[in-house]
User: Fold these one by one.
Assistant:
Number 1:
Amino acid sequence: MTDDSKPLRTETSSARPRARALGLPLPGTPGPLNAITDVAGVSVGLTTLIDGASIRTGVTAVLPRPAANLLHPVWAGAFSMNGNGEMTGVHWIKEAGWFTGPITITNTFSVGLAHHATVRWMIEHFPDKVGEDIWVLPVAAETYDGYLNDIAGLHVTESHVLSAIDSAAGGPVAEGSVGGGTGMITYEFKGGTGTSSRKVELAGKGYTLGALVQANHGLRPWLTICGQPVGAALSENRVHERERGSIIVVIATDAPLIPTQIERLARRAAIGIGRAGTPSGNSSGDIFLAFSTANDPGPLPEPARLGFEAISNDLLDPLFLAAVEAVDEAILNAMCAAEPMSGKNGYHVDALPLDRLTALMGIKS
């Protein structure tokens, strides 16, 4: 039995190098942390559950604004590349162009609980508003960790979700087998949580874009890194015969955009995941959310009039490219950070062999 009063593991940086540190020829200029937290005000929290032989799961929380400001709408857009998965709250995002509160990501069977716990967190932090004059529709998303994790045991509890939200902080983000990514598998190697960022200039001003992924998708023969089809040469110890995973992508930016532009940004995550080789298989839930921290309208309810500053559509190409690059690198970071893992039924998943990868890529140590 797990102790659900606290995370079962403290999140620390992986001992394995990130993708860029390997010398991979990754394009673009990252922010100082190369993480979604390079976008000012964005924070990430993680609850990791590893216990016994079969519990390998957790929760990731992304706060788009400081906790005290989470009743301030965040302008957003969403896109489903392949809808064999769930992300709550997106109907309202498509309707109104905004959401409030934390974003949570967990396993498939716990997404409803994550939604419920996030509502509780909002009620507890804004008791005079939520449930009185204000309603909330949290964004909660999932990928399936049932190969390594006893997903039917429903081991994620409300307190685990609340812990992830409460622990959210800026700074470096732990990657690999942490948070909601704990039991996830990417191109049949151990995967999970990954992040990256890019600095861009639009209309003479600098902005930041960051991406965070929960990567649980892809087949080994598809794996392509920096344009090189490396999967075929890393064919040992495969775990799937067909696609059975998903990927959730969260993109944040401080660039001022209107909701239709932010939805266009979310769509570019599809190109980002495609760079590593996935065709977005039938069984994959490839669902993407993007938001902008600019144009803060203040707390709900909405003011009578809303004012926007927005970058021209004609100038958005560098931001679109930044999204593609950051998503691709975030997936690689998840795979590079993740250690080998054994789990339910004794199943084992190898880590991406970094020495063999650099040899295949022609990188000299």
Note: Helices lie at 90-96, 111-125, 158-166, 259-267, 269-274, 317-337, 354-360.
Number 2:
Amino acid sequence: MQFLRKKVLIIASNMIDMGDAEKHDARNNLWEVAPPYHIFVSHGFEVDFVSPNGGKVEFMMDPLGISSYTIKYEGFMDKANNTFTPRTIEPSNYWGVYIGGDYGPLFDVANNKELQSIIAKIYESGGILGGGGHGAGAFANVVLSTGEFLVKGKKIAGFPNSTEKSKSWAKQGSLLPFLVESQLNKNGAIAQNKHTLKDKHEVVIDQRIVSTMFLPSAAIVAKEMIILNK
């Protein structure tokens, strides 16, 4: 479905750490946001950034490869340093919305009623939703106007429990408000993981939701969103 306004909305987190004594990192993952941004911009789409509080959002990971390119030549940091607040966003201006990880979105996007409503309105108007890594957790709780969860009955790839529980990044997931795979399944999704997918970097497409478990395929999510928009 082609919209008259060629705009994409990227939702990012304002979080810095998880609020624990050791201050485990909860910033956005540059490699799950910058490559998709590059894909959208290089295909002629305008991109807006929004965050729960607006203003600057911060990233983990060094700017390498295409991330470095989009920062230097495509105005990525200008957008990331000046994100919109939810109340300034008009959902009808966007044909798609994308959310990457890392952990931040689980803390302040997944429970933000305004952002959850924006996602629902874009999707229900025929828009396309994309998620990378922990990004799927940010829309796992979105409720549609029907009262049902947006993810219900849809195959969605998000950061899997098996990986979360084996890593120290969030103390085996114990610092998180929820585990992405568990929350997706709880709300009726058919969560994909390393057992259900032949390739752990596969991009899953189901009913205008495009998702992947890990960062290497974030740019492909954006490209598949564009293909669906034609």
Note: The CA atoms of residues 26 and 76 lie 20 Å apart.
Number 3:
Amino acid sequence: MTEQIAQVHNETQAELALRVMTMPADLNGAGSIFGGWIMARLDQAAGLAGGSASSGNVTTVAVKELLFLHPVYPHQDVKVYTRRLRTGRTSMQFHLEMWAADLGKTEATLCATATFVMVAVDEKGKPREISK
């Protein structure tokens, strides 16, 4: 991807958690992607990162912050990077960044950032301890 994303990836130990192309069905009335779609992709990426880090299922318990920094448009290549900020007994906190680029372009724009708290859960949906 772009040099800027590579720099963010290297400096923060962020991991690519999700990559998706936006579609016209995800548009709001203003011609950009719905904020709810953006939040859902961030939640999905946090879930993938949390599940991988805890070797099992996780659930979202809090979104401490979500900033919409730049519109996302249809037919863009969207990447979500995650970085674990802390791990507790049953929970993990992640910083997420959503970057979007026009298809075939190398320059990406930081569109959203968020902080999610995920809790590891067992097969009954009860909190479980995270192995460290």
Note: Residues 69 and 111 are 5 Å apart (CA to CA).
